[in-house]
Design goal:
Helices cover about 30% and strands about 20% of the residues. The chain has about 600 residues and is of the alpha/beta class.
């Protein structure tokens, strides 16, 4: 550990914390001194700081780097990228899954809004009102962001769907094969985007991603030649990473294709990896293929969700078990308080429940066949690894009740009450009612934590809190299997994620690195239940989730949050491209410029 010069004045000193520095090594007690936005000393620090934080008995770690978010719209109107910044996140990366808003011609504004609405469940009116559209090209979009200030640093990736529509127009929307001229144009734009400061390029190859009109995302069937041409444009710029989400219907051929793109371009690639109920063991094959690619010297990683990716049902949310029920449709447009009153009326309730045998309750999710996989959403420290005996089916059987009635009571009386209770249906990473596959995946050396989707799915999913789950569930509270070391999870969500997208200047509590830090009361760290807020443009609704125990979050040496409350400091900026490691440190090669 380093010893600072005597009598030196620092901007900030964090005193006596248990430092888990992001390297994967064991924690140690130390002071951390900050000067001019970077860590100046770690050890026994003499001299005073303009501000000091007593961290005795507290955990001091790097700020979390969340590389899979969708703040592409929110970043144009909001200074605070919550919920991520409530959870110790100090750097976010957006432009994932091929969706975003640049490049875009004025005539295509609504088209891209409908795509984001469908893929990421952000309502059309919110985006139409909130987006200033003071750009057309992707470099213009970055320029617009560069004039703004945030509570986190923001990195952006070039979204494939926007790029394809910009170059190909309706042919791109209709998923026609790109011509050589189309590919050359997309490659040239990708090159300019990387030179302007994009961290990478995101694409989607999954049928789950559809526009709000039901049409599949424009990138779904893009050919290998198109992906290679774009990646070669990035290679010509000498920078940028590739991000992919795919159904992997043919996991061997699809991975082989992505591997060939990496081989041809030399650009690093990461993809989403989750346990699917369709093929619960496929993740093992994907890990084996990544190991083979790594042995061949290729830079390929997987982003893995650290808890189930699931849907929340509720009376305030996008869907609930009665959404397509005739009686509920009669009242769905009423204010919540009036709907609650009607649902509590014995006559209306009896009519609603009597219709059960004739109607599917939630489009595409069929709760009637899934009550054994739907759970009440708890309040403090919600259980994201629930056991079958806590399901709605089990509760109904124990009470001798109808599961629809149990579900309705939970939505009416659970949580804060007054119709704000929620139900939770794990869809991915939970095919066998256990997080054991996630536990195995997270230990693989080509895996990083990801897929929080912060800023997206505002009426169905609330996973921007993944980083808190990493600490609370995996390193402290898990009871249904082995835990993971705190040092490993900190390294994974800080240093490893930063390196995955080329941010070599952060993710470590060491001299010379960016002073993005968290001071955490580890014993008190608690994840709160999801709630609904109406704070989007036009008063739009969104799911939010807070935590307790983050005593201070620090971005570029400035305290942005104290005990979960914003301080008013907005030191976050647009990240233009990969960031080099401090001169005294040798950067690793993953995603290097």
């Amino acid at each position: 550990m380093e010893k600072a010069p005597i009598e030196k004045t620092w901007d900030l000193v964090i005193r006596g914390g248990n430092v888990v520095d992001g390297s994967g090594g064991p924690g140690f007690e130390a002071d951390v001194a900050v000067k001019d936005g970077v860590i100046a000393a770690v050890g026994r620090v003499s001299g005073s700081g303009a501000e000091e934080i007593d961290a005795r008995g507290k955990l001091v770690i790097p700020g979390f780097v969340d590389i899979h978010t969708h703040y592409d719209g929110q970043a144009t109107w909001d200074e605070r990228l919550q919920p991520s910044s409530w959870h110790g996140v100090t750097s976010v990366v957006m432009g994932n899954c091929g969706v975003g808003f640049a490049p875009c011609r004025p005539a295509d504004h609504d088209r891209l809004i409908r795509l984001m609405e469908g893929v990421e469940d952000i309502p059309f009116p919110v985006l139409a009102d909130g987006l200033p559209w003071n750009w057309e090209s992707y470099p213009d979009y970055l320029d617009a962001l560069s004039s703004r200030r945030f509570d986190v640093d923001v990195g952006s990736q070039l979204p494939h769907a926007a790029l394809r529509v910009y170059v190909m127009g309706q042919r791109g929307v209709d998923r026609e094969p790109a011509t050589q001229a189309d590919i050359a144009a997309m490659g040239a734009i990708a090159k300019r985007a990387m030179e302007a400061g994009a961290l990478g390029f995101g694409t989607s190859r999954t049928l789950n991603h559809r526009s709000s009109d039901g049409s599949p995302i424009a990138t779904l069937t893009a050919g290998e030649d198109e992906l290679t041409g774009i990646a070669l444009g990035m290679a010509a710029a000498g920078r940028g990473v590739l991000q992919v989400v795919s159904d992997f219907n043919d996991p061997v051929e699809e991975f082989a294709m992505l591997r060939r793109v990496v081989e041809a371009s030399g650009r690093p690639l990461s993809f989403s990896l989750l346990q699917s109920p369709r093929d619960p063991e496929q993740w093992r094959l994907m890990l084996d293929q990544m190991s083979e690619a790594k042995a061949a010297g290729l830079q390929m990683r997987a982003q893995v969700a650290t808890r189930p990716v699931g849907v929340l049902f509720g009376l305030e949310l996008t869907v609930n078990p009665f959404s397509s029920h005739p009686s509920y449709r009669e009242i769905k447009a009423l204010p919540l308080s009036e709907r609650v009153a009607r649902l509590r009326d014995p006559g209306f309730r009896a009519r609603l429940l009597a219709e059960e045998a004739e109607n599917a309750r939630a489009p595409g999710l069929s709760p009637a066949r899934a009550w054994d996989r739907i759970y009440p959403m708890g309040e403090d420290n919600p259980d994201y690894e629930p056991t079958p005996d806590r399901s709605i089916a089990a509760i109904a059987a124990e009470r001798g009740a109808d599961p629809y009635g149990v579900a309705l009571d939970q939505m009416l009386d659970g949580g804060e009450g007054n119709g704000r209770g929620m139900l939770y249906l794990p869809l991915l990473n939970y095919a066998q009612n256990s997080l054991e596959p996630a536990y195995r995946m997270l230990q693989h050396d080509c895996v990083v934590p990801g897929l929080s989707d912060g800023g997206a799915h505002v009426g169905m999913i609330c996973d921007g809190s993944f980083p808190t789950t990493n600490l609370v569930h995996w390193t402290r509270d898990r009871t249904r299997g082995p835990k993971l070391p705190l040092e490993m999870m900190v390294k994974g969500q800080c240093r490893d994620t930063a390196e995955t997208v080329g941010l070599f200047d952060r993710g470590l509590v060491q001299s010379g690195y960016r002073a993005d830090l968290n001071v955490i009361d580890y014993d008190r760290l608690t994840l709160k239940a999801p709630q609904v807020a109406y704070d989007l443009p036009t008063g739009g609704r969104r799911l939010i989730q807070r935590a307790e125990g983050y005593e201070a979050t620090i971005v570029a040496g400035q305290v942005t949050y104290r005990d979960g409350t914003p301080t008013g400091a907005l030191p976050g900026r647009l990240l233009r491209g990969a960031q080099a490691a401090p001169a005294a440190h040798d950067p690793k090669t993953w995603a290097a410029e």
